[in-house]
Amino acid sequence: MLSIGARSQDRSAESPLKGKTVYIPPMAYGSGRAFAAAFRAVGVDADIVPPSDGRTLELGARYISGDECYPAKVTVGDFMKVLERPDVDPSRVLLFMPTADGPCRFGQYAPHLKNILAANGYEGAEIISPTSENSYGGLGALSRTFVRTGWRALVAADILQRMLLRYRPYEVVKGSVDEAYGICLDDLCDAIENAPLNPPRQLQAIRDSLVRCRDRIRAVSIHRDPSTPLIGVVGEIFCRLNTFSNEDVVRRLEEYGGEGWLSDITEWVWYTNSETFRKLRLAGRLYSKDGLVAWIRNRVQHQDEHALLAPFREEFAGREEPDIHEVLECAQPYLPRDGALGEMVLSVGKAVYLAKKGVDGIIDISPFTCMNGIVSEAIYPRVSRDHGGIPIRNFYFDGTQSDLDRDLGVYIELARSYQNRKAAARA
Ligand code: SF4
After folding, report:
1. How far apart are CA 334 and CA 202, in angstroms?
2. CB under 8 Å to 397, separation ≥6 — which residues?
3. Atom 2 in ligand 1: residue holding the nearest Cα
4. Which domains does the chain have, with CATH numbers?
5. How far is the centre of ligand 1, averaged over its atoms, from the C-alpha of 370 (Å)?
6. What is the DSSP code (8-state) at residue 51?
7. Ligand 1 — pocket residues by CB below 6 A?
8. CA nearest ligand 1 atom 6, residue
9. Closest-lying ligand 1 atom to the alpha carbon of residue 68
10. Which of 109, 341, 372, 374 is the pocket-test mutation for ligand 1 (most atoms within 8 Å of CB)?
């Protein structure tokens, strides 16, 4: 049995996945790297896939049928790029592909990928997924430790990303915040990978790293301009967070003089937790063993998040991420959670929350043909009407976007005009 507190290089000797490498598609770059560090913390070799590029889209188009959503094309393309490398032995590869229940195609990605691998001679490569049979259970006795480490990694990476987006629009020297962020990410990944696995000591090590990161980014020279339009960014989780898929839309917003407030990954985790409670309640099993397990997990996750966010209270004042119940409450008049499922509820609820917080505009990032984006787009005119005419605009991506710059330029002008007449002051 692995001794708690061992260094990561000792841990690999005990890993049930020894000799394999997990490849993670970086939904968000920082979160992907931090999540890979969480795997390494329990002795499993892991890394994010190499950066997406033209070859990604070429391979994605070759291996999918064309009916799938854009995130499927990007992730399949990136995975196949790894597998076609001459130095990679597919039988030592584990491809990380989360799954989810829900109304859209996402739940089919993992089975679909399995079929693609089988049909193209890559049967040896396996898929690792949080809810499939070949789950974190593959980590044996370390699966619980991994789940908690992975959660802390995601929370910490979200915090770092928020710091990046709070400072980058105002940097005096171009590139200086990105540079500080890069150093911070290395620091955080090192802390996650090498911290003791004992929960309190691990939490302390990650928190210490975040405090160093906070101070490092704070030390970068910036010039804040309160008249900068603040734009809430909601939408489909992969496309919203993956800068390759969305053509780095938040950075481009910044180039047009805006600041982005991007919905993060943990929002989805809180939503799935809350869905678990709703389903248990519907089945009359809220007060059952499953209910107790869900309650404990939710509580522990809240405690971890609270501890990691504590050093950033001042930094994020006025930019607090809402409790999931508040998001669902905001969505209620438009898409009640009992009648609609998934990201459309979050996008609409978050758009309402952001409008109340006084943002100057909201954009919804979705893959072309994404059901969630299409439903949300139909609701937004009403949300806008109910909130002083705040400009809300959908941006769809499929790798062929050509007018993004023109559209963003026009959109920022709309946000500026709303900023001058809006009733809700920014917190
Ligand atoms: S959320 Fe949209 S893009 Fe993602 S799988 Fe569902 S339909 Fe496709």
Report:
1. 42
2. 70, 239, 245, 246, 247, 365, 366, 367, 368
3. 370
4. 15-141 (3.40.50), 227-264+321-427 (3.40.50)
5. 5
6. P
7. 69, 71, 104-106, 236, 343, 367, 370-372
8. 104
9. 8
10. 372
Q: Which residue has the tokens 């928190």?
A: 207
- Which ligand 1 atom is nearest residue 236's CA? 1
What type of residue sits at position 222? I
Query: Residue 239 CA: which ligand 1 atom is closest?
Result: 3
Which residue lies with its CA nearest to atom 3 of ligand 1?
370
Q: Which atom of ligand 1 is nearest to the CA of 370?
A: 2
At 425, the amino acid letter reads A
Closest-lying ligand 1 atom to the alpha carbon of residue 109: 5
Length of the chain as a residue count: 427
Location of structure tokens 């969305």: 246
Instruction: Tell me the chain's radius of gyration from C-alpha atoms.
Output: 21
Please list the pLDDT of the chain residue by residue as tens digits (427 residues). 333 444 444 666 666 688 899 999 989 999 999 999 999 999 999 999 999 999 999 999 999 887 888 999 999 999 999 999 999 999 999 999 877 666 677 778 888 899 999 999 998 999 988 753 444 656 677 788 999 999 999 999 999 999 999 999 999 999 999 999 999 999 999 999 999 999 999 999 999 999 999 999 999 999 999 999 999 999 999 999 999 999 999 999 999 999 999 999 999 999 999 999 999 999 999 999 999 999 999 999 999 999 999 999 999 999 999 999 999 999 999 999 888 988 999 999 999 999 999 999 999 999 998 999 999 999 999 999 999 999 999 999 998 867 898 999 999 999 999 999 987 777 6
